[in-house]
Amino acid sequence: MQWTCPIRSGAERQPEAPALTFGGRRWTYRELDTEVGRWVAALRSRGVGAGDRVALLATNHVAVARLFFALGRVGAVLAPLNARLTRAELRPLAEEVAPRLTLALTGLADRLPGAEPLESFADTVNSPESGGVTLEPGTPRVILFTSGTTGRPKGAVLTEGNFRASARCSEANLGAHPAPRWLGTLPLFHVGGLAMLTRTAYDGGCLVLRERFVADDTNRAIDEEGVTHASLVATTLERVLEARRDRPVPATFRLALIGGGPVPTPLLARARAAGLLALQTYGLTEACSQVTTEQPDEADGRTAGRPLPGLEVRIAGPGGEVLGPGREGDIEVRGPTVMTGYLNRLEATREALRDGWLRTKDVGRVDGRGRLTVLSRRTDLIVRGGENIYPAELEAVLASHPAVQEAAVVGVPDERWGEVPVAFVATRNGAPLPEELGVWCRESLAGFKVPARFLPIEALPRNAMGKVERAVLRERALAA
Question: Global pTM?
Answer without folding.
Answer: 0.86
